[in-house]
DNA sequence: CCGTATCCATGGGGATACTG
DNA sequence: CAGTATCCCCATGGATACGG
């Protein structure tokens, strides 16, 4: 449904594998780099860094580095990021609403071709 | 924004490169296989076939084969496909609305890092 | 702790040729 | 015309190790 919208959306870091999940992790407040890796357990630091950088650049998240040793960096949602998060919820609602019909179509299709 | 929703969406053929564009090509009426290739000029028959099959399976498009030689097959939107198409329009609306803010964020970011 | 640097695996999708 | 059949590229992103 959505990756195609990259063309419409153009440059927005939208439609990739991690953006939505990262936004969700930040829903309830700031998170540190390592705290983000926990719920996104499969993510490697490289990929997380890339994702966060791109999202920061697009104004979806804010990066705040607290000086000192050991370093401490927290990520938080911007207003734009929060609006996107909420909009993604409506997208998921659409899916939840329509999923039964999709699954039924698929069941019917599979039965037709298997015969 | 959206590819991640594949996880939410799960099995739905949504978030891939072609679904949205194909739906748009069918907006104004039925189209034949070769007619679809014109507006989707970059698409190869293999990819178009794969996309259409998956969309048919998910109940987004309907495939109607008219017997005879040469063969004639037309694709059309199902009700579900049309609802998805309309919903994609609202997604694009969100983007259009928010794109200026994103671009501005990006401009500011690039200036910051280039300094 | 918060990343970078390297290398590598995978699969989506493109190019091309062919068939019923 | 409406696809199949092959081959192949390459970007995304995973694994691992290391650095400030």
From TrEMBL, chains A, B:
Molecular function GO terms recorded: DNA binding
The HTH hxlR-type domain extends over: 5-103
InterPro entries xref list: HTH_HxlR, WH-like_DNA-bd_sf, WH_DNA-bd_sf
What are the record keywords, sorted?
DNA-binding, Transcription, Transcription regulation
Bilayer-crossing residues are: none
Note the SUPFAM superfamilies from the entry: Winged helix' DNA-binding domain
Its name, as the record gives it, is Transcriptional regulator, HxlR family
């Amino acid at each position: 449904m959505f990756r195609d919208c990259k063309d419409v959306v153009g440059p927005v870091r939208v439609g990739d594998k991690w953006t939505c999940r990262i936004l969700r992790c930040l829903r309830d407040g700031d998170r540190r780099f390592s705290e983000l890796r926990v719920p996104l357990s499969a993510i490697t630091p490289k990929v997380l860094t890339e994702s966060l950088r791109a999202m920061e650049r697009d104004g979806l998240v804010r990066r705040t580095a607290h000086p000192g040793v050991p370093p401490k960096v927290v990520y938080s949602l911007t207003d734009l990021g929060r609006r996107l998060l909420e909009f993604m919820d409506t997208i998921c609602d659409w899916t939840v609403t329509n999923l039964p019909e999709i699954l039924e179509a698929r069941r019917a299709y599979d039965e037709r071709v298997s015969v």
